[in-house]
Amino acid sequence: MVFEDRVFDIPLVKSIFIRKPGHGKLLELEKLVVNSQEKLFKLTRVLLKTYVGSVWLCVTLYLCGPIYQMCVTKDKSLRLLAFDMWFPYGLEDFRVYVATFIFHAYAGYLCCIAYPGLQSTIILFVGQIIRQLQILTFILNNLDEIAKELVGKRGELWQETCIQIFSQCVDHYIQTKRFSNKLNVICQPFYLALIVVATMLVCVCSVKIAISDKLSPDTMKYYVHELCFVLVVLMFCYLGQQVDNECEKLEAAVTEKWYLFNSSHKTNIRIFMMAMCQKMPIYIYGSITLSLQTFTWFIRTGMSFFTFLMSVLED
Protein backbone atom coordinates (compact mmCIF):
# COMPACT_ATOMS: atom_id res chain seq x y z
CA MET A 1 0.00 0.00 0.00
CA VAL A 2 2.88 2.41 0.74
CA PHE A 3 5.88 1.45 -1.37
CA GLU A 4 3.90 -0.21 -4.18
CA ASP A 5 1.23 2.33 -5.08
CA ARG A 6 -2.04 0.38 -4.99
CA VAL A 7 -3.93 3.18 -6.75
CA PHE A 8 -2.62 1.64 -9.98
CA ASP A 9 -4.85 -1.35 -9.23
CA ILE A 10 -7.63 0.86 -10.60
CA PRO A 11 -7.67 0.16 -14.38
CA LEU A 12 -8.72 3.76 -15.07
CA VAL A 13 -5.61 5.17 -13.38
CA LYS A 14 -3.36 2.64 -15.09
CA SER A 15 -4.79 3.53 -18.51
CA ILE A 16 -4.31 7.27 -17.87
CA PHE A 17 -0.56 6.85 -17.39
CA ILE A 18 -0.43 4.86 -20.64
CA ARG A 19 -2.52 7.32 -22.68
CA LYS A 20 -0.89 10.50 -21.25
CA PRO A 21 -3.88 12.88 -21.63
CA GLY A 22 -3.07 16.51 -22.41
CA HIS A 23 -6.11 18.23 -20.91
CA GLY A 24 -9.32 17.83 -18.92
CA LYS A 25 -10.18 15.82 -15.82
CA LEU A 26 -7.98 12.91 -16.88
CA LEU A 27 -4.92 15.17 -16.75
CA GLU A 28 -6.04 16.51 -13.35
CA LEU A 29 -6.39 12.94 -12.09
CA GLU A 30 -2.89 12.06 -13.33
CA LYS A 31 -1.42 15.09 -11.55
CA LEU A 32 -3.37 14.26 -8.38
CA VAL A 33 -1.96 10.72 -8.28
CA VAL A 34 1.64 11.90 -8.77
CA ASN A 35 1.55 15.04 -6.62
CA SER A 36 -0.29 13.41 -3.70
CA GLN A 37 2.30 10.62 -3.51
CA GLU A 38 5.20 13.09 -3.58
CA LYS A 39 3.50 15.32 -1.01
CA LEU A 40 2.88 12.37 1.32
CA PHE A 41 6.50 11.19 1.24
CA LYS A 42 7.80 14.75 1.64
CA LEU A 43 5.53 15.40 4.62
CA THR A 44 6.55 12.11 6.26
CA ARG A 45 10.25 12.93 5.83
CA VAL A 46 9.77 16.37 7.40
CA LEU A 47 7.82 14.86 10.32
CA LEU A 48 10.46 12.17 10.85
CA LYS A 49 13.36 14.66 10.85
CA THR A 50 11.50 17.03 13.17
CA TYR A 51 10.50 14.23 15.52
CA VAL A 52 13.99 12.71 15.63
CA GLY A 53 15.46 16.14 16.36
CA SER A 54 12.96 16.79 19.16
CA VAL A 55 13.50 13.38 20.79
CA TRP A 56 17.28 13.77 20.43
CA LEU A 57 17.11 17.15 22.19
CA CYS A 58 14.90 15.72 24.94
CA VAL A 59 17.22 12.74 25.57
CA THR A 60 20.28 15.02 25.53
CA LEU A 61 18.71 17.33 28.12
CA TYR A 62 17.82 14.39 30.37
CA LEU A 63 21.32 12.91 30.09
CA CYS A 64 23.46 16.04 30.23
CA GLY A 65 21.36 18.18 32.59
CA PRO A 66 22.55 16.46 35.80
CA ILE A 67 26.15 16.41 34.53
CA TYR A 68 25.96 20.15 33.90
CA GLN A 69 24.50 20.74 37.37
CA MET A 70 27.24 18.58 38.90
CA CYS A 71 29.97 20.60 37.16
CA VAL A 72 28.43 23.92 38.19
CA THR A 73 27.70 23.04 41.83
CA LYS A 74 30.66 20.65 42.36
CA ASP A 75 28.19 18.16 43.86
CA LYS A 76 29.09 14.70 42.54
CA SER A 77 25.94 13.15 43.98
CA LEU A 78 23.95 14.86 41.20
CA ARG A 79 25.34 12.42 38.66
CA LEU A 80 22.81 9.89 39.98
CA LEU A 81 20.07 11.96 38.36
CA ALA A 82 21.35 11.07 34.89
CA PHE A 83 19.90 7.59 35.43
CA ASP A 84 16.23 8.43 35.94
CA MET A 85 15.03 5.59 33.71
CA TRP A 86 17.64 2.92 34.43
CA PHE A 87 19.84 2.62 37.51
CA PRO A 88 23.36 1.12 37.17
CA TYR A 89 24.78 -1.57 39.42
CA GLY A 90 27.45 0.73 40.88
CA LEU A 91 28.57 4.35 40.85
CA GLU A 92 31.45 4.37 43.33
CA ASP A 93 34.04 3.53 40.67
CA PHE A 94 34.22 6.39 38.15
CA ARG A 95 35.13 3.97 35.34
CA VAL A 96 31.99 1.97 36.03
CA TYR A 97 30.03 5.21 36.03
CA VAL A 98 31.45 6.28 32.65
CA ALA A 99 30.78 2.87 31.08
CA THR A 100 27.25 2.80 32.45
CA PHE A 101 26.60 6.36 31.33
CA ILE A 102 27.79 5.56 27.78
CA PHE A 103 25.51 2.51 27.62
CA HIS A 104 22.62 4.58 28.94
CA ALA A 105 23.28 7.30 26.37
CA TYR A 106 23.52 4.69 23.59
CA ALA A 107 20.16 3.19 24.58
CA GLY A 108 18.58 6.64 24.77
CA TYR A 109 19.83 7.73 21.35
CA LEU A 110 18.81 4.37 19.88
CA CYS A 111 15.27 5.19 20.97
CA CYS A 112 15.62 8.48 19.06
CA ILE A 113 15.65 6.42 15.86
CA ALA A 114 13.42 3.45 16.71
CA TYR A 115 10.50 5.27 18.37
CA PRO A 116 10.09 8.09 15.80
CA GLY A 117 10.63 5.54 13.02
CA LEU A 118 7.76 3.39 14.26
CA GLN A 119 5.40 6.33 14.58
CA SER A 120 6.39 7.77 11.19
CA THR A 121 5.69 4.40 9.57
CA ILE A 122 2.18 4.34 11.05
CA ILE A 123 1.65 7.96 9.94
CA LEU A 124 2.74 6.96 6.43
CA PHE A 125 0.26 4.06 6.38
CA VAL A 126 -2.65 6.22 7.56
CA GLY A 127 -1.63 9.00 5.18
CA GLN A 128 -1.72 6.52 2.30
CA ILE A 129 -5.29 5.55 3.27
CA ILE A 130 -6.28 9.23 3.20
CA ARG A 131 -4.65 9.60 -0.22
CA GLN A 132 -6.54 6.62 -1.66
CA LEU A 133 -9.83 8.09 -0.42
CA GLN A 134 -9.01 11.49 -1.94
CA ILE A 135 -8.35 9.92 -5.35
CA LEU A 136 -11.59 7.91 -5.22
CA THR A 137 -13.49 11.07 -4.25
CA PHE A 138 -12.04 12.97 -7.22
CA ILE A 139 -12.97 10.20 -9.65
CA LEU A 140 -16.56 9.94 -8.39
CA ASN A 141 -17.05 13.71 -8.24
CA ASN A 142 -16.05 13.97 -11.91
CA LEU A 143 -17.33 10.60 -13.10
CA ASP A 144 -19.53 11.95 -15.92
CA GLU A 145 -16.79 14.21 -17.33
CA ILE A 146 -14.10 11.52 -17.09
CA ALA A 147 -16.32 9.03 -18.94
CA LYS A 148 -17.15 11.66 -21.56
CA GLU A 149 -13.45 12.35 -22.17
CA LEU A 150 -12.89 8.61 -22.63
CA VAL A 151 -15.74 7.89 -25.09
CA GLY A 152 -16.28 11.31 -26.66
CA LYS A 153 -19.99 11.94 -26.00
CA ARG A 154 -22.87 10.96 -23.75
CA GLY A 155 -24.86 7.91 -24.78
CA GLU A 156 -25.16 4.18 -24.17
CA LEU A 157 -21.39 3.67 -24.29
CA TRP A 158 -20.96 6.58 -21.85
CA GLN A 159 -23.38 4.91 -19.40
CA GLU A 160 -21.48 1.61 -19.61
CA THR A 161 -18.17 3.42 -19.06
CA CYS A 162 -19.57 5.16 -15.97
CA ILE A 163 -20.72 1.82 -14.55
CA GLN A 164 -17.30 0.23 -15.19
CA ILE A 165 -15.39 3.10 -13.56
CA PHE A 166 -17.80 3.10 -10.61
CA SER A 167 -17.28 -0.66 -10.14
CA GLN A 168 -13.51 -0.13 -10.17
CA CYS A 169 -13.88 2.48 -7.42
CA VAL A 170 -16.03 0.10 -5.35
CA ASP A 171 -13.42 -2.66 -5.64
CA HIS A 172 -10.60 -0.29 -4.66
CA TYR A 173 -12.57 1.07 -1.71
CA ILE A 174 -13.11 -2.47 -0.41
CA GLN A 175 -9.38 -3.18 -0.80
CA THR A 176 -8.49 0.04 1.04
CA LYS A 177 -10.98 -0.68 3.82
CA ARG A 178 -9.56 -4.18 4.25
CA PHE A 179 -6.06 -2.72 4.61
CA SER A 180 -7.36 -0.12 7.09
CA ASN A 181 -9.00 -2.81 9.23
CA LYS A 182 -5.79 -4.88 9.36
CA LEU A 183 -3.73 -1.81 10.26
CA ASN A 184 -6.24 -0.89 12.96
CA VAL A 185 -6.02 -4.35 14.56
CA ILE A 186 -2.21 -4.22 14.63
CA CYS A 187 -1.86 -0.62 15.84
CA GLN A 188 -4.76 -0.43 18.31
CA PRO A 189 -2.59 -1.40 21.35
CA PHE A 190 -0.07 1.26 20.29
CA TYR A 191 -2.76 3.96 20.07
CA LEU A 192 -4.07 3.05 23.53
CA ALA A 193 -0.59 2.98 25.09
CA LEU A 194 0.27 6.30 23.44
CA ILE A 195 -2.80 8.08 24.84
CA VAL A 196 -2.40 6.64 28.37
CA VAL A 197 1.36 7.22 28.62
CA ALA A 198 1.11 10.69 27.08
CA THR A 199 -1.62 11.69 29.55
CA MET A 200 0.52 10.66 32.54
CA LEU A 201 3.74 12.20 31.20
CA VAL A 202 2.09 15.50 30.28
CA CYS A 203 0.63 15.66 33.79
CA VAL A 204 3.97 14.85 35.47
CA CYS A 205 5.91 17.30 33.27
CA SER A 206 3.37 20.04 34.02
CA VAL A 207 3.78 19.43 37.76
CA LYS A 208 7.58 19.48 37.43
CA ILE A 209 7.41 22.79 35.56
CA ALA A 210 4.98 24.26 38.10
CA ILE A 211 7.16 23.48 41.14
CA SER A 212 10.52 24.32 39.50
CA ASP A 213 12.24 27.45 38.30
CA LYS A 214 10.45 28.14 35.00
CA LEU A 215 13.56 29.28 33.10
CA SER A 216 16.24 27.03 34.59
CA PRO A 217 18.21 24.76 32.20
CA ASP A 218 16.99 21.69 34.11
CA THR A 219 13.34 22.63 33.50
CA MET A 220 13.82 22.91 29.72
CA LYS A 221 13.73 19.13 29.33
CA TYR A 222 10.21 19.02 30.78
CA TYR A 223 9.02 21.68 28.31
CA VAL A 224 10.45 19.70 25.38
CA HIS A 225 9.18 16.35 26.68
CA GLU A 226 5.64 17.65 27.20
CA LEU A 227 5.55 19.45 23.86
CA CYS A 228 6.72 16.31 22.01
CA PHE A 229 3.96 14.13 23.42
CA VAL A 230 1.25 16.75 22.91
CA LEU A 231 2.23 17.17 19.26
CA VAL A 232 2.41 13.40 18.66
CA VAL A 233 -1.06 12.85 20.11
CA LEU A 234 -2.35 15.82 18.10
CA MET A 235 -0.88 14.37 14.89
CA PHE A 236 -2.51 10.95 15.34
CA CYS A 237 -5.84 12.45 16.38
CA TYR A 238 -5.74 14.77 13.36
CA LEU A 239 -5.03 11.82 11.03
CA GLY A 240 -7.95 9.88 12.51
CA GLN A 241 -10.20 12.90 12.04
CA GLN A 242 -8.94 13.34 8.46
CA VAL A 243 -9.79 9.73 7.59
CA ASP A 244 -13.32 10.30 8.88
CA ASN A 245 -13.63 13.56 6.93
CA GLU A 246 -12.45 11.94 3.69
CA CYS A 247 -14.97 9.12 4.16
CA GLU A 248 -17.74 11.73 4.45
CA LYS A 249 -16.53 13.47 1.28
CA LEU A 250 -16.45 10.13 -0.55
CA GLU A 251 -19.96 9.34 0.65
CA ALA A 252 -21.17 12.67 -0.75
CA ALA A 253 -19.32 12.05 -4.03
CA VAL A 254 -21.02 8.67 -4.51
CA THR A 255 -24.44 10.31 -4.77
CA GLU A 256 -23.16 13.29 -6.80
CA LYS A 257 -25.19 13.75 -10.02
CA TRP A 258 -26.99 10.42 -9.51
CA TYR A 259 -29.85 11.64 -11.70
CA LEU A 260 -27.61 11.49 -14.81
CA PHE A 261 -27.24 7.73 -14.71
CA ASN A 262 -29.46 4.76 -15.54
CA SER A 263 -31.19 2.38 -13.12
CA SER A 264 -28.32 -0.14 -13.15
CA HIS A 265 -25.88 2.55 -12.00
CA LYS A 266 -28.30 3.72 -9.30
CA THR A 267 -28.45 0.16 -7.97
CA ASN A 268 -24.64 0.13 -7.72
CA ILE A 269 -24.81 3.45 -5.85
CA ARG A 270 -27.14 1.94 -3.23
CA ILE A 271 -24.81 -1.05 -2.82
CA PHE A 272 -21.79 1.24 -2.38
CA MET A 273 -23.64 3.35 0.19
CA MET A 274 -24.34 0.20 2.21
CA ALA A 275 -20.63 -0.72 2.07
CA MET A 276 -19.68 2.78 3.28
CA CYS A 277 -22.09 2.97 6.21
CA GLN A 278 -19.37 2.01 8.76
CA LYS A 279 -16.64 4.23 7.22
CA MET A 280 -13.04 3.58 8.42
CA PRO A 281 -12.81 4.58 12.10
CA ILE A 282 -9.44 4.19 13.83
CA TYR A 283 -10.31 2.63 17.18
CA ILE A 284 -8.30 3.18 20.36
CA TYR A 285 -10.33 1.12 22.79
CA GLY A 286 -13.86 -0.20 22.42
CA SER A 287 -15.86 2.36 20.46
CA ILE A 288 -13.44 5.26 21.20
CA THR A 289 -11.83 6.51 17.99
CA LEU A 290 -8.88 8.72 17.11
CA SER A 291 -10.33 12.16 16.41
CA LEU A 292 -9.98 15.79 17.44
CA GLN A 293 -12.57 15.11 20.15
CA THR A 294 -10.18 12.51 21.58
CA PHE A 295 -7.41 15.13 21.63
CA THR A 296 -9.71 17.51 23.53
CA TRP A 297 -10.42 14.71 26.03
CA PHE A 298 -6.66 14.06 26.32
CA ILE A 299 -5.94 17.72 27.19
CA ARG A 300 -8.82 17.94 29.68
CA THR A 301 -7.81 14.69 31.40
CA GLY A 302 -4.18 15.80 31.64
CA MET A 303 -5.21 19.12 33.18
CA SER A 304 -7.53 17.34 35.63
CA PHE A 305 -4.70 15.09 36.81
CA PHE A 306 -2.43 18.14 37.03
CA THR A 307 -4.95 19.99 39.23
CA PHE A 308 -5.35 16.91 41.42
CA LEU A 309 -1.60 16.42 41.93
CA MET A 310 -1.03 20.11 42.66
CA SER A 311 -3.77 20.05 45.30
CA VAL A 312 -2.17 16.97 46.89
CA LEU A 313 1.25 18.64 46.92
CA GLU A 314 -0.18 21.80 48.47
CA ASP A 315 -1.89 19.77 51.22
Explain this structure.
Helix content is 78%, strand content 2%. It has 8 helices and 2 strands; from the N terminus they run αααααααββα. Strands 1-2 form a two-stranded antiparallel ribbon. It is elongated. Mean pLDDT is 83; it is low at 81-89.
Summarize the structure.
78% of the residues lie in helices and 2% in strands. It has eight helices and two strands, in the order αααααααββα.
What class, by secondary structure content?
mainly alpha
Q: Give the total of beta strands.
A: 2
Helical residue percent band: over 70%
Average pLDDT confidence is 83
Largest beta sheet: strand ordering: 1-2
Number of helices: 8
**Element-level helix/strand string:** HHHHHHHEEH
Largest sheet: 2 strands, antiparallel
Uncertain runs are: 81-89
Query: What is the first-to-last residue Cα distance?
Result: 55 Å
Radius of gyration: 26 Å
- The fraction of residues in strands falls at under 5%
What is the overall shape?
A: elongated
Q: How many structurally independent domains?
A: 1
